[in-house]
Amino acid sequence: MTPNAERLPSPGASYLKVKPVRLEGRPSAVVNAGMSTPTTMPDGWWVGLMWAEDESGVVSCREVAPIAGPPPLPPLQRLGELMTNTLGDLLVVEEGRFCLKLRLLGDLQDPHEPWRRPLVLQVAAKWDPLRIATMTETKVAEAALDAFTRAIEVAHRP
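Above: the chain sequence. Below: its structure as tokens.
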């Protein structure tokens, strides 16, 4: 894999104010979490793009993995579990499963190294209408970005 395949240029301005994230164990490492303007599809799925970047562009998923080595779970599974735990009550549950779908953008060059790809997530969620009834669209987006931020803060932990 070429070194640049793990990183992408910055996607541009964030819909919400970027959230700085200090990466534990890396005292000088700070990334900024941002997101695109979300859209609600006709079938009720809310879709947005989220990323973590530094001054050089979008960072690799490897930047948020443990320093000693990537965890045994692939990044989508790890980030999905962490985001679901944070968003819990806001998500619709269908057939016993939370309605949260994640997809990492960028090509997976080596299936044995799933953490070596850009940290850009396409997020799709179905929100519980009763839980978000009093929230503005911006507050819903902030809840989703907070969940992403929290997930990258703790992804390195066992």
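The chain has a mean pLDDT of 91.
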